[in-house]
Amino acid sequence: MLTRTREDNRTGPRYFIWTIGCQMNKAESERIAGYLDSAGCRATGWFSDADLVILNTCVVRQSAENKALGTLGLLKGLKDEHPGLRIVVTGCLVDSDSKDLSRRFPQVDFAFRPGDFRELVEWGHDEAGLVGGELRLPETCSPCAYIPIMQGCDNFCSYCIVPYRRGREVSRPLEDILCEAEQLVEHGAVEVTLLGQNVDSYGHDLPEGPDLAELLTQLEGIDGIARIRFLTNHPKDINPKLIETVASASKVCEHLQLPVQAGDDDILRAMRRGYTVERYRELVRTIRRHIPHVSLSTDIIVGFPGETETQFEHTCSLLEEIEFDVVHVAAYSPRPDTAAARELEDDVPSHVKKQRLNRVESVQADIASRINSQLQGKIVEVLVEGKKKGRWFGRTRSDKLVFFADAGDWLGRLVEVQIDNASPWSLKGQVSTNS
Ligand code: SF4
After folding, report:
1. Atom number of ligand 1 nearest to Cα 234
2. Beta-bridge partners for 52
3. Whole-prediction pTM
C-alpha cells in the first residue's frame, strides 16, 4: 500500500492519497499528486489531517476490495465529524457507471475511472475550486519511476475483472512516452518501468503501429536512463523480436514477468489463457536460450473453480521444473461480471485454497533459497532506491532486493555490493571495494 506523506509549505487544501494494488495504481497516484501539487494543494501525512482524500482502489482480489470498502467506511465516520472533507475514488472499484458508486457510498463526492485524469481536473476546477492545476509529473521522483504505456486489456481471462474496469487496450503514443521518460530523468529517475496490463500488445491500436521492442530501443537512446523494465507480459503474446531486444539492449534488464497462472491444461483452458503448459515451457526454453541469466517472475492462482488435487499438483510440478525467481500466489475469488463468476461454481473450499496457497509458498521458498544462495560471495550491481531502518536498499538488474549498510549517500546511484547473506526474499551485503 502506498500512502503519500510528503509535507510542504503550499497554502491550498491538504490532500492525502491512499493507494492499493498494482504498480499501475501507484504510477497513477503519482500523476494525481502532480496535478494536485500544481493546483496549490498540500500533501499531508494522514486521512485526519486532509481536506481532500483520494482513494485509489483495487478490486482484482476480494481482499483488496475489502480493504477499499473498509477505508470508505472509515472515511464516512471522518466525514460525519468534518463535513467539509471531500472524498474522491478512482481505481478499479469504479466501473463504467461512476455515478453508481456515489449512490452506493453517499460519502463519496466524486469518482472517476482509472487513468481518466481529465475528469478529475474538470471536477477539481468546477466543484472543488482548484485553480491553475495541470496534468503533470510530480516535481521530484524516485530513482525508479513508472510510466503507464497503455490502459486496459482485450484478453478477458475468465477470472479477471480488469477489462471490465479499465476497458479495452488503448496505447499511448510513442512520442508521449519518450517525452515523459525525458522529464522523469530530469526529475531524478535513473530507472523506468513501462506499465501495462498486457505490454506485449503495445502499439497495435496506434496508426504507425510501433511495438514494445521499438519503444525499448528508442528509450535506450535517452541519456540518464540506466535501466529499463516493463511489465506485465502475456505468454501467448510475447514475441521473438521482443526477446531479441531484451537480449541485445544493454539498458533493458534481464527480468521478465510472465504469469503462468496454472500448470494444468484443463485449468488454463477454463481460465481462457490462450496457451498450454507445453507452449509455456517452450517459451521459457527460448527465453533462456537467448537471455542466459534472465530472472523470471510469475503469478499463480490456486483454487480456481473445479481445480482437483491432481491439477494443483501439476502446478507445483511446473514450479519445480521451471524454477522461477519469484512467484506471486493468490487464492481464487470470484469477481463480478467475469465469465468464471457467471459460469463456474466457486467450489474449492476456502481452507483448501489456503492449504494450496501455503504449499506454493513453501515450494517457492525452497526454490528461491537455492537460486539466491548462488549469489552468495558474488558482486552485484544495485540501483539504490532508499533507506529503511538504517540500511540502504535497492534492486539488481534481475530484480533481487538487496540491503546494505554504509555511511555514504547512495540514493539514486548504482553501487556494487558483495553479497554475504541470501534468503528466499532478499540479499544482504556490503559495498564492494570496486565501487
Ligand atoms: S491478460 Fe488476463 S489477467 Fe491480465 S489483465 Fe488481461 S484479462 Fe486480466
Report:
1. 1
2. 15, 86
3. 0.92
Last residue of a domain, one of 231, 253, 275: 253
CA distances from 297 to 94, 257, 370, 376 (A): 29, 5, 15, 21
For residue 284, the CA-to-ligand 1 centroid distance in Å is: 20
**Ligand 1 mean position, distance from CA 398 (Å):** 24
Q: Does any domain span residue 290?
A: no
Nearest C-alpha neighbor of 6 from the set 188, 184, 147, 140: 140
Which structural domain range is residue 204 located in? Answer: 141-253
Question: Which of 24, 151, 160, 237 has the most ligand 1 atoms within 8 A of CB, as the residue to mutate?
Answer: 160
CATH number at residue 78: 3.40.50.2300
Residue nearest to atom 2 of ligand 1 (CA): 157
> Which ligand 1 atom lies nearest to the CA of residue 232?
4
Q: What is the pLDDT of residues 295-317, one digit of tens each?
A: 999 999 999 999 999 999 999 99
Q: What is the pLDDT of residues 85-123, one digit of tens each?
A: 999 999 999 987 777 787 889 999 999 999 889 899 999
Q: Which of 198, 220, 253 is the last residue of a domain?
A: 253
How does pLDDT run across 156-204, given as a tens digit for each residue? Answer: 999 999 999 889 999 999 999 999 999 999 989 999 999 999 999 999 9
Half-sphere exposure (Cβ direction) of 23: Cα atoms closer than 13 Å: 18
Q: Closest Cα to atom 1, ligand 1: which residue? A: 155
